[in-house]
Amino acid sequence: MFEAVLFDMDGLFIDSEPDWHDAESEMMKANGYAWAPADQLQCLGGPLSRVTEYMAKCLNGAKTPEELGAMIVDEMVRRMSGQVQLMPGSLEFSKHVAEAKIPQALVSASPRVIVDAVLSGMKEKYFATSVASGDIERTKPFPDPYLHAAKLLDVNIENCIIFEDSPTGLTAARASGAFVIGIPHYVTVSEEPRLKVIKSFKDIGLSDLENWSQINQRELGRSL
Predict the structure, then answer these.
(1) Pairwise CA distance, residues 15 & 10, whole Å
(2) Could you tell me if residue 177 is left (phi over 0), alpha (psi between -120 and 50 degrees) or otherwise beta?
(3) pTM of the model
């Protein structure tokens, strides 16, 4: 079985992409720019620095990335500080993982203040630790956040499974050396060795984890 289960946060474990879209749309509208679905797709998966640089370019420099970043973080903290909306089946699956005594981590490209707001807004959670943008020097699409999570949990990243949804996050997950499960919502993801795709957490259970663990060992060239 896997040594640990690592989850992305936005759009994967929690249903926050609509909040990000609304917050970004309202902020850009207030600055005279009509935020379109194509803009939202461009920013999917962050990190925040890339999003605010894109926004500043859309505004022709009327606001700096730093100014836009402070505004969007304040708004998202406000939105996430209440009861958090979860993706279908995510908490139930996490609970089953906890019952199997497999450690879990929440690994996000969002700033620590947003991650902490989310965690405080979750009445029930099973994460042993969390990693946010700013905790270490580089965030997604670099693999560093997932490598750091494995270090915090004292596990071998090759024996971990990562759940991700965005191209940015999947790039980080794949580069980490872990076995990866994609649950894409706005993009198309093709399966590869050590990258499988599912539709929802509602479709899986511990038996799937065990099966993927065996596939992982085979694709690593290890005998079972």
Answers:
(1) 7
(2) left
(3) 0.91
Tens of pLDDT, residue by residue over 13-39, are 999 888 888 998 999 999 999 998 888
Going from N- to C-terminal start, the domains of the chain cover 4-15+84-219, 17-80
Alpha carbon distance, N-terminus to C-terminus of the chain: 11
Confidence of residue 224 (pLDDT cuts 50, 70, 90): low
DSSP assignment of the chain equals --SEEEE--BTTTB--HHHHHHHHHHHHHHTT----HHHHHHHTT--HHHHHHHHHHHTTTSS-HHHHHHHHHHHHHHHHTSPPPBPTTHHHHHHHHHHTT--EEEEEEEEHHHHHHHHHH-SS---SEEEEETSSS--TTSSHHHHHHHHHHT--GGGEEEEE-SHHHHHHHHHHTSEEEE--SSS----BTTEEE-S-GGG--HHHHHHHHHHHHHHTT---
Q: Which amino acid is at 6?
A: L
d(CA 54, CA 198): 30
Tell me the pLDDT tens digit for each residue of 148-196.
999 999 999 999 999 999 999 999 999 999 999 999 987 889 999 999 9
| Superfamily of chain region 4-15+84-219 | HAD superfamily/HAD-like (3.40.50.1000)
> Is 82 or 210 the better-scoring residue by pLDDT?
210
Question: Which residue do the tokens 């670099």 mark?
Answer: 142
